[in-house]
Write a structure and sequence with these properties.
globular
């Protein structure tokens, strides 16, 4: 009943751009902070970016700051991750997650619901 579905992943050249989407169903996204996480092969999952329920506050990992931008459209029950100037080290499975508690975004794994992920590959 409660589901997050990521889309928009794919293969892109270094320096290219990609836009990920995360659509929620079964619950109203207005009451949740949202986060984007990624997991590269052989590495642990890391927080990339997050946004508060109202969209008024955002956080970014240092490795992506200035290149990735998180946004949300509560009317469409969707959160986005615009990725520019992509690097090979950005290659990973990207997950979106929803957090109800405090409705504040954090870059740790304190989220209630998780999507299945979408693959992003940055390669020439």
């Amino acid at each position: 009943q409660l589901q997050l579905v990521e889309s928009g992943g794919g293969l892109v050249q270094p320096g290219g751009s990609l836009r990920l989407s995360c659509a929620a169903s079964g619950f109203i996204l207005d009451y949740y902070a949202m986060g984007w996480f990624r997991q590269a092969p052989g590495k642990e999952r890391e927080g990339v970016s997050c946004i508060s329920s109202s969209g008024g506050s955002t956080k970014y990992a240092d490795s992506v700051k200035g290149r990735l931008t998180i946004s949300r459209d509560n009317a469409k029950n969707t959160v986005y991750l615009q990725m520019n100037s992509l690097k090979p080290e950005d290659t990973a499975i990207y997950y979106c997650a929803a957090r109800r508690r405090d409705r504040i975004c954090v870059l740790s794994d304190d989220y209630d619901y998780w999507g299945q992920g979408t693959q992003v590959t940055v390669s020439s």
